[in-house]
């Protein structure tokens, strides 16, 4: 049984972390830290936890964090996260960071897109991008995992088999993504008002969403050549779920059946990837509340259309974070994550 | 053609006012006032109006409002509204006030429930409660209409025929109301965050909602005896619409058919009240975007159940406000309001 | 480890049963029966189960059901269920029946409200109404549990403490219930079309819903006098969740604090009942996906308002069914049910 | 005042037609035909029309349709529509057909995609594709308009300026479309069950939606070369609205400003096209209930992203149908269509 802390306990992703860890047979939550003033029990913040998990939150200050834990999940916003992470690493606490602060090998890419100076470059050097389907071996050995963004998780799992096998042009990738509103976070602002979101679909951050370089980086790495991604996220009126519709051009002619076989082969041992067969298509409601990524692939006129869906809060955040913890700690990878 | 202004132009109710007035053959919007800084065109605030109505908003200050209008709709919050209304009345501009500031004949009731001193008692003396179905003759003659609250509109229209004819006990009325989220206003706060409202039903302000005394006052007036109302509002995940489920006890035995006949008789000349027959029940979606109040009545074991539905933003606010304007100005009552 | 079957595997409640039983450490699903033709794997019917639980469904005929199980959950419609239940009881398989077929001690009440002759009166004699908070001791000893209806579960748990202690008049109970659309079942008809349900609230079956006599029966039993309930269900646009707003009159004057103390006392040992304190109110989203019933109580002008919320598919159906199984089999009552 | 009939009165699009025509100062609905048995008043089918428009529907048979009208709107399904249209044309009644039956100049394309023999080839010869922004002059002179599909309307208006001016490659167009559920029609089937649609996003008919050839045909015509379109429609949980996200490659380098200037020029005189400026993006809620098509254009890395939104039931069906009627009859084009 390891001792686990959550740093930034009031985020939507933290509620999911708690729910998963309560089912986890090898991890015990021992600390909940929050920057909010005046909060006390976590079940006051998330009443669904009442009588199930009523632990008190601690006021988070950089100076005074208990370090007697084995592992922490950091769910703080970007730029804040890197102020806390080094302190844990220094005393031997492993970290899964859910912010973007450690996702980029190139510090300059981070600084350009997040418009802030990176204050922990040595952390960048040790951090591993926590997509188990691609980087499992490295995750096993690291003390710091940069948990991937929600859109990149969905997009990269959808693209990896074809990119790795060089079946598609990586300089001409279009990703049209649809996300539930929880992807916008818990902050209340005009964009998250019920009447602004409900009965509405819209694109946002067209051509400038910060997940663009994250996807490009990893696809470049996998494909061993500079990738160029046109990424357009949309908000749809539902709480959670992401569907990425990915359009790529093929280098080689190939049939629907062959391409599905490639995916089935590539992911045959993966516990959380499902490939649709029989011409069925993924629905986000079939992955919500699970750690699965569900994928369908179609060849249409020499183009491949990949439909990849996840729960943005589970496989796109907290579920994957626990999957990473399981790998880092040598646990069975599905612990806490299979319903 | 009369000249009309909207004082508080950025409220959800103001958008509805504008949409209705644009269809109105006898009224011209000439002024839009807002307390917001930095706003300019109304179509920047409500993009749905782009190319249809792009009038500029004026910054609202108490000192400096143009008075060369025939009529203003005031959509400011309670306590603010009464700071502006007297200025218009003084120079002969008629007012329909959509706040609660002029809805109570008893100043003390207002001050108790709204926790603020009333600064315009002389306005209170001239104001008429703007429910045309009950007070049409008085509305015709007044210069100041206090436009009813959304819940009271639905509840009082549902109760009036039985109360007036003394068929029910008015000291034992239960009103269980369900409202769409726009009833909470346009402000963004935790309660109006999409993920807090969506996939959720909840009661709020149980036993202490400010519409309770408003309903009690008018029912007391109609029934000529002190009414006591147990009013419980609920939020349901939709943009607009109100359904009041009203439970009253009968003084006299009566059948479903007789009671429907009473309602049909009472409202036979009303352009905006529909009584359901053939055991059908109202759906809020059938009144949304209309000025109708739709009512079904059932007798069950000596109790009457009244189901009364309106669009909270139309019959519950802006539609009724224009209906009042039509009456005050001698126009056909349905102008701008029939689809 | 006991062997469990689900008879009627394609209902929404069966999906929830499966999800719960997969987490259950003492029960193994060994049989899935369905009356649907041509279906095969349960994960084809509920794709969310793919790779998690891909068991094949068996075509259900009355003649030919495997009986080598310890327990079955019957999720067939009323009138159909009682055709299958006796066969299991005969060979010693315990039954939790989720239909209404065994909920009434008085056969005549069932036959009046369900308009069908009861074909298994001897089953009626042994069946126990499966509300653990009230009938736990009887459930322990029975072989046939009639799992309560969703509305009755929420309503009775909300009423029981005050009824048992004779604090309220049971001949004057008003229950205004709000339910998500899954309460209407999986059948597709005009009433469940997305565009008919979405952005709409409506009452249905006013004065004639079949859960009325079910609630009256149990409240009469608890209160030891004939109860009369005015029950009005409403549909709200969300997938799941029930909120009952219950209005009762008090026999004795009592404060909010005292009444909350009564509830806290009555349910102090219950693992799945939560009483709200600090004037907080229940939200259905805080019980969805849990087996909790969450209750707030308010005294307003000599009347008690009880707000009681559950997940209609969990505490209102499948969660409670597993809770009953746990009790019948001597397992820890919360097995499979605490997140 | 012209006399107008609706052939297929119970479709969702017919309700919208009725609402628009009731506001229309030059058209009078004189006939409502339906193939449904036993229906009578249109307000029984659409209760929102009660007291506003209670006309009786007539049972539709091919033999016996009144022909003393000036114009009919045919809202029957494809393959059925062409059985009724010739009868009207023969006696001089103008037709706007909302089905796909007359949208294809090439009969073979229709027969391939709709899998039915075309029974009215002479109708095909006279029909004009009713997209006023492109074919206004032809619409003026025709007696038969093929009203465009909802997705093609949104897509073609978004593409036309760049295609006509030869700025983009038309053999490499990707259209990722999102639609509300009303786009699936009024029929109740598993796919339109509330609980299947709500809290879900999914793609459907990938690579095989019938609007693909419709878009390709018109773009080929405008661009004067064979177009190839990859069209992927998605369902999102809302009643109405379409957003097309269109990805095209540029033949010439051009800036955001220049491209917006091209759109503004092209559509400068169009009453129902709005081009977003100031880097704002369209929201479907801002065009719902209007006849507007709202468009934003962005240049990202040599690619153009066009976001085009309409109300699928108004500009994508009934609003455009009335716009076509206005053009065919020489009325002001915006009659009945400006709020």
From TrEMBL, chains A, B, C, D:
Swiss-Prot/TrEMBL keywords: Amino-acid biosynthesis, Arginine biosynthesis, Cytoplasm, NADP, Oxidoreductase
Single GO MF descriptor: N-acetyl-gamma-glutamyl-phosphate reductase activity
Enzymatic reactions: N-acetyl-L-glutamate 5-semialdehyde + phosphate + NADP(+) = N-acetyl-L-glutamyl 5-phosphate + NADPH + H(+)
Annotated PROSITE patterns: ARGC
Principal location class: cytoplasm
Source domain of life: Bacteria
EC number: 1.2.1.38
Pathway(s) it belongs to: Amino-acid biosynthesis; L-arginine biosynthesis; N(2)-acetyl-L-ornithine from L-glutamate: step 3/4
InterPro entries: AGPR (IPR050085), AGPR_AS (IPR023013), AGPR_dimerisation_dom (IPR058924), AGPR_type-1 (IPR000706), NAD(P)-bd_dom_sf (IPR036291), Semialdehyde_DH_NAD-bd (IPR000534)
Broadest EC class assigned to this enzyme: oxidoreductase
One GO CC term on file: cytoplasm
Localization per Swiss-Prot or TrEMBL: Cytoplasm
Catalytic residues in the record: 150
BP-aspect Gene Ontology terms: L-arginine biosynthetic process
Domain Semialdehyde dehydrogenase NAD-binding: 3-142
Function text: Catalyzes the NADPH-dependent reduction of N-acetyl-5-glutamyl phosphate to yield N-acetyl-L-glutamate 5-semialdehyde.
Family: Belongs to the NAGSA dehydrogenase family. Type 1 subfamily.
Record-linked PANTHER family: N-ACETYL-GAMMA-GLUTAMYL-PHOSPHATE REDUCTASE, CHLOROPLASTIC-RELATED, N-ACETYL-GAMMA-GLUTAMYL-PHOSPHATE REDUCTASE, CHLOROPLASTIC-RELATED-RELATED
HAMAP family linked: ArgC_type1
The protein, known as: N-acetyl-gamma-glutamyl-phosphate reductase
Organism of provenance: Candidatus Scalindua rubra
The organism's taxonomic lineage, starting at the top: Bacteria, Pseudomonadati, Planctomycetota, Candidatus Brocadiia, Candidatus Brocadiales
């Amino acid at each position: 049984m390891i001792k686990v802390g959550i740093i930034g306990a009031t985020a939507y992703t933290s509620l999911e972390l708690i729910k998963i860890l309560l089912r986890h047979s090898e991890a015990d939550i021992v600390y909940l830290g929050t920057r909010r003033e005046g909060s006390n029990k976590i079940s006051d913040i998330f009443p669904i936890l009442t009588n199930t998990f009523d632990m008190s939150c601690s006021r988070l200050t950089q100076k005074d964090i208990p370090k007697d834990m084995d592992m922490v999940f950091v769910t703080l916003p970007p730029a804040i996260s890197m102020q806390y992470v080094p302190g844990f690493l220094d005393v031997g606490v492993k970290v899964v960071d859910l912010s973007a602060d450690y996702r980029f090998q190139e510090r300059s890419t981070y600084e350009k897109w997040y418009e802030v100076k990176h204050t922990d470059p040595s952390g960048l050097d040790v951090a591993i991008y926590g997509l188990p389907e691609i980087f499992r071996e490295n995750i096993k050995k690291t003390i710091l995992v940069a948990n991937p963004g929600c859109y990149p998780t969905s997009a990269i799992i959808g693209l990896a088999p074809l990119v790795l096998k060089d079946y598609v042009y990586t300089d001409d990738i279009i990703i049209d993504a649809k996300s539930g509103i929880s992807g916008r976070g818990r902050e209340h602002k005009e964009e998250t008002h019920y009447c602004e979101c409900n009965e509405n679909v819209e694109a946002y951050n067209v051509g400038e969403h910060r997940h663009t370089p994250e996807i490009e980086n990893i696809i470049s790495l996998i494909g061993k050549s500079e990738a160029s991604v046109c990424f357009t996220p949309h908000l749809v009126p539902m709480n959670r779920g992401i569907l990425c519709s990915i359009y790529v051009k093929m280098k080689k002619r190939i049939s629907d059946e062959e391409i599905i076989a490639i995916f089935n082969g590539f992911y045959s041992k993966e516990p959380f990837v499902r490939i649709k067969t029989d011409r069925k298509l993924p629905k986000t409601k079939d992955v919500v509340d699970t750690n699965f990524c569900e994928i369908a692939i179609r060849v249409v006129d020499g183009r491949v259309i990949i439909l990849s869906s996840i729960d943005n809060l589970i496989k796109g955040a907290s579920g994957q974070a626990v999957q990473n913890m399981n790998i880092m700690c040598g646990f069975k990878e599905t612990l806490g994550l299979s319903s």
